[in-house]
Amino acid sequence: MAGSLGRTPDSLKASGRSSEKLSLSILQGKIKRDPEGYETELELIYKQFKASVDLFQQQAALSFSSVGGIGSDPSVAKDLGDRAMFLAHVTPFYPKQLAAFPAQLTDLLRTSCLAMPSGLRNHVAQALILLMNRKSLVIEDLMALFLDIQTLGDKNLRNLAFSHIIQTIRKMSSTDPKHKSLQKIVISMLEQEDETKAKRALVTLCELHKRKTWPGDKNDRVAIAICEACFHTSPRIMISALRFLLDYENLDDDDDSDASSSDDEDSKKISQVVINREAVYKANNKGTSSSKKKKQAKLQRAMKSIKKKQRSATENTDSTYSPLNHLNDAQKFAERLFSRLQTGKSTGERIETRLMMIKVIARTIGLHKLHLLSFYPFLQNYAMPHVKDITQILAAAVQSCHDGIPSDAVEPLFKQIVNQFVHDRSRPEAIAVGLNVVREMCLRIHELMTEELLQDLVLYKKSHEKAISAAARSLIALFREINPSLLVKKDRGRPGGPIAKPKLYGEVDVFSNVPNVELLQESDHESGSDGNEDDDDAELPGSEDDEQELIPDDCGSEEEAEEDTNDGDDINNTEDDSDIDTSIGGDEEEEMNDSDEAETDSENEEIENEEDDGEASDSSGEDSGNKEKAMGKKRKIVDFDANLLSADTSLRALKRFAEAKNERPSFDESDGILSNEDFRKIKELQAKKEAKIALARKGFKVPNSDQLSKKRVDPAKLEAHIRHKLTKEQRLELVKAGREDRGKYKSKAAVKQKKTGGSSNKQKEHKKNMPLAAIRSKAGKSKRTKKMKNSLSGSQFRGRKAWK
Fold it and tell me: Where does the record place the region Disordered (predicted)?
């Protein structure tokens, strides 16, 4: 088109429209407004760009050995960077003329990045990012290049390329098929032996996995690649992968504020539905101040446990998630890592690296319930109080225990911990840690504890150290729940319910039905019985009035009537209390049985009361008839009609209740298919039941094996209640913190002298002119006090003698 218009660079110079007189920024704005009118200027600048690239490459070939790049002629690099940015801005307006420009710029950065100065590298990288944002380049073309340029020593360029890769992938849709190709590029670079490239690839994978852009649920290959990096030939890559696997659960705690606020709102709603109003009322209004505090604290603990359970149930990613969950062959992974751990001491691995490997192996064994029996004798070498980071090693030992391991394999390690930590000559901190470790191991493998050993360990509850006594009492609380027969009778607590029996090795609870479906059945029965009782109550008040009319006024049976009404009130109260008491029950099975028995008892009591009322009315009628005869009065005919009416209505109500109970289909007779509404109702009933148990529970709640295997063991909890000795710097910090709110010390005289404002009332009284009578009385008082002092100062008063 330029040739058809007859525009050449010579004609442009002759007309005064030379591109050298126009700055690139001004020309860029004009091209965006009128692209067709400036095609000749574009061709000229494009030719200048090509010439600058050739000149730069020639100079780079001449001085390739220089470390800082081309320093003799910086104008070449500046012109090249400016023209590259200019062409990147105007490429969308000239797709045909600049079709080859993105590829040329990519090749320039790939081939000559080492020879470029830092400023030119940043300019070219920004131009490529601009082209990719304008859809002139695809991220697959730049992924490997941007990972490569991160290995250079340029910090600014590394941050620019890394942030661009992360932000671009995060903006992509989760269903975009490009994710697989990008993952393949990064994982292939991670598998290379080059340490710097593998390091950048691992950092990219970890960042995207941590931000849940490539989560493990949908991208198993990412989690597996991070786990496989533990076997990289480079020790730095291995350490980075191990550290990420260990610290991932700590990263999950730092969730967004929006998510936490939504969880709090959900938990508030659930707590409003679940917590019993009567419990809240009693905690705030009934009892003494000390009992109220105890009830309020108990209520807060129950609320906290309910919120925690609901939060873990509503979160998309569980807080116990780990990339180790997605291992295809967890047993092989643990064995390979353990073999590397065994050879690590001979190859010169640091103790910190070996400790991280121990923790990852233990976490893998606990998550997948693996059998690596040679791991426990290996830990015996480290189970001594003087070993560095012993609490972390003991936490790993606890983490690797689960109910699928035979107790014989763990028993030598268990006895080693008991013998090394729990004895009279050991330090209090070591005894407390040892008792806590024993408790956690027995919580996972019940067969480890013997009766003699438990009775010896229980004696530490009388220790004066709080950490030791608390650990011993927690051990007692655990065995009260799992196996009370090993304890002495006085340590078993109050007898309530059946005695717990420990599970045998390999014993597993298998669900034969939908979990907690019995709650739905019982709620249906309760609602049906409540409806029938309401119907009966709606129809029987007339009969009750008629029955009350049968009682004469002058027969002296007012007390009996009051007793009957009180009995009825007691029955109703027990029915209401049964709903509340079952809500604060102990074990789940006992609650269900008690509620069923309460319902049947209440029904039987109602029937018996109705029969007793009928008999009482008959007897009272006979007594009243006899009294009427004795008094000379006649009995009314209305009393017989009312008696017959009440009996008829009570029989009709009982027949209606029996027919409704037979007509209602049971859950077993139905098809057994549950709807979404049924599952929602089961969740609500389970939440209510857990809240009632939490309010009534006073002992130790034993979690199941799945919860124990998923939860990470915190080494800090093994040192609970232990007061460590403070260093001098920590003590000084506490002293300085106590002085912050306290003012500088000053004497009272100095405070009075610097006082601003008027004088005080006390000072005004001294200056006030007193009347003559007040002056004389004051002078007389002073004289009498002086005289009394003088009389007592000479001789000491020793009291009167008893015989005078």
Answer: 284-325, 522-635, 729-804
Q: What pLDDT score does 346 carry?
A: 73
CA 585 from chain center: how many Å? 27
Residue 565 φ/ψ region, left for φ over 0, alpha for ψ in the -120 to 50 degree band, beta for the rest: alpha
Rounded mean pLDDT of 514-525?
77
Phi-psi region of 516 (alpha: psi -120 to 50; beta: other; left: phi over 0): left
Is the CB of residue 541 less than 8 Å from the CB of residue 568?
Answer: no
Angle at which helices 466-482 and 451-458 pack, to 10 degrees? 140
Helix locations, 400-497, DSSP H: 407-421, 428-444, 451-458, 466-482
CA dihedral 290, 293, 295, 301 (to 10 degrees): -150
Q: Which helix (H) or strand (E) holds 558?
A: helix 558-583
CB burial of residue 528 (10 Å; 0-12, 13-18, 19+): middle
Cβ proximity of 91 and 136 under 8 Å: yes
Half-sphere exposure of 608 (CA within 13 A, CB side): 8
Q: What are phi and psi of 486, to 5 degrees?
A: -75, -15
Low-confidence winner among 320-324, 421-425, 644-648, 755-759 (lowest mean pLDDT): 644-648
For 312, other C-beta atoms within 10 Å of its C-beta total 13
pTM for this prediction: 0.65
Measured CA to CA, the distance from residue 400 to residue 712 in angstroms comes to 10
The rounded distance, in Å, linking the Cα atoms of 490 and 494 is 9
Task: Give, in order, the Cα–Cα distances in Å from 527 to each of 241, 270, 448, 621, 693.
Answer: 56, 22, 47, 38, 22
Quickly state the pLDDT bin for 606 (edges 50, 70, 90).
very low
Q: What percent of the chain has pLDDT over 70?
A: 69
CA distance 548 to 783: 90
Amino acid at 675: S
CA gap 782, 786 in Å, rounded: 6
Q: Is 50 in contact with 43 (CB distance < 8 Å)? A: no
CA nearest to 260, candidates 216, 302, 310: 310
Residue 480 CA: distances (Å) to CA of 291, 332, 463, 475, 487: 26, 39, 20, 9, 8
Name 373's Cβ contacts closer than 8 Å, sequence gap at least 6: 405, 409
Which tokens hold the place of 529? Answer: 């019985």
pLDDT of 619 over the 70 cut? no
Band of residue 708 on the pLDDT scale cut at 50, 70, 90: confident
- What is the tens place of the pLDDT at every residue in 574-603? 344 434 333 333 344 444 444 444 444 444
Provide the b/e sequence for 630-652 (b: ≥16 CB within 10 Å): eeeeeeeeebeebbeebbebbee
Query: Rounded to whole angstroms, how far apart are CA atoms 231 and 235?
Result: 9
Residue 607 pLDDT exceeds 60: no
Please write down the long-range contacts of 562-570, taking CB distance under 8 Å and 24 or more positions apart: 564/613, 564/616, 567/609, 568/609
Distance CA 48, CA 37 (A): 19
DSSP 667: T
Q: By mean pLDDT, which of 37-51, 171-185, 607-621, 652-666 is the weakest?
A: 607-621
pLDDT tens across 393-412, in order?
A: 999 999 999 989 999 999 99
User: What is the distance between the alpha carbons of residues 83 and 127, in angstroms, rounded to a whole number?
Assistant: 10
**What's the confidence (pLDDT) of residue 662?**
55
* H helices present in 172-219, as ranges: 178-190, 195-210
Residue 784 amino acid letter: R
